[in-house]
Design goal:
heterodimer; A: 219 residues; mainly alpha; B: elongated
């Protein structure tokens, strides 16, 4: 880190006003903002649109939660011990995903691969427990066709599960790309986007375990 | 900046300044930030699970407490994992987040409000059946 960057980058955060001069030094005239920031911002907008989509599923679930049509309610179906394990898996995987992105910035291959592998195993464990729960519910005759409540439940939680599945495929792709191409700038931007995606899935899971499981059992 | 750059990058002229966020944080600092985030999130999760099954607090207050804990945990995730801060280079991220939160709020509260009113104003099912006879 060069001296002026330390001054501009560090000091900038403490400035109250808009410091034109330090901004010009950080971003040369031919390039206003670094590509990394543009990519991160664009992906952040996508993630927010994904969160808006989930909010529609949450609204549907909240409206239909009482419409059990004489079938089982959440209280009889949900097992909080499983949900606790799922939550722990996803939270720890979010942490190891953060470690992987630190490893990627620092160009430390072994750190990056082991943290990504841990993320992958924890994510797969989460998915396994969730699929096991779904299969058990369908076997008990509480499938998505039983009642409006269960349709909304399977749509909301299943949609999150599909996101986790896509995230796992993306994770394996990123490991393969780093292995084949090294810590190139464009690969690092993809790792950044993957990290944002994975952390956002954990945020959505916080809403799911609170609204669906904890409130469902406690109602 | 030097040790974050690679010789191989030279032909990617468009990425020159790059790595803004990480120039400001050494890996050890970022690690501590993730660790603090993990600790806070774990604490909030444990409190959520504990409070949902307890009889120590007044029953009707439990859902409210759960919502507050969930929002707090989302805040922890945003700050410590997604690095959304109030720094000057984060204004765009925060504005986008604020817009997203507004839409989420409108969709959820609006749906619940409208559907509750529809339910309230609907003729009960058994009366509809009688009218059809």
């Amino acid at each position: 880190m060069s001296a002026f960057e330390a001054a501009a980058g560090r000091g900038d955060l403490n400035h109250v006003g808009y410091d034109r001069e330090s901004r010009d030094r950080r971003y040369p005239a031919d390039e206003l903002v670094s590509k990394r920031i543009i990519v991160g911002y664009g992906f952040w907008i996508f993630l927010l649109s994904d969160i808006v989509m989930f909010s529609a599923f949450f609204a549907t679930y909240a409206v239909l939660v009482g419409a059990t049509a004489g079938g089982p309610s959440g209280r009889e179906l949900f097992n909080l011990r499983n949900v606790g394990i799922e939550t722990a898996c996803l939270l720890l995987s979010s942490f190891t995903c953060g470690l992987a992105s630190i490893g990627a910035w620092a160009h430390r291959g072994c750190w990056f691969y082991s943290a990504m592998a841990a993320t992958c195993i924890l994510g797969a464990a989460f998915l396994f427990i969730e699929v096991h729960e779904f299969v058990g519910m369908v076997a008990r005759g509480a499938g998505p066709t039983r009642s409006a409540f269960l349709s909304a439940f399977f749509t909301l939680v299943g949609c999150h599960g599909l996101h986790v599945t896509a995230g796992l495929l993306w994770l394996l792709t990123m490991m393969a790309q780093v292995f084949a191409k090294g810590f190139r700038a464009d690969i690092l931007r993809r790792v950044l986007c993957f990290g944002l995606f994975w952390h956002t899935l954990d945020i959505i899971w916080v809403a799911i375990f609170t609204v669906v499981y904890l409130m469902g059992v406690g109602q | 900046m030097s040790h974050f750059e690679q010789e191989g990058d030279s032909h990617y002229a468009d990425t020159a300044p790059g790595y803004e966020r990480f120039d400001e944080h050494e890996p050890a600092e970022a690690f501590v930030s993730y660790l603090v985030g993990l600790g806070l999130a774990t604490l909030l999760t444990i409190v959520s699970f504990f409070i949902s099954g307890t009889t120590l607090v007044w029953g009707p207050s439990i859902p409210v407490a759960l919502v507050v804990l969930a929002i707090a945990q989302m805040g922890v995730h945003l700050v410590f994992f997604l690095n959304i801060t109030t720094g000057p280079d984060n204004v765009n991220n925060v504005m986008a987040l604020a817009f997203g939160v507004l839409i989420v709020f409108l969709v959820i509260v609006g749906s619940l409000w409208i559907m509750a009113h529809l339910n309230h104003n609907m003729v009960p099912m058994d009366q509809i059946m009688q009218m059809q006879r």
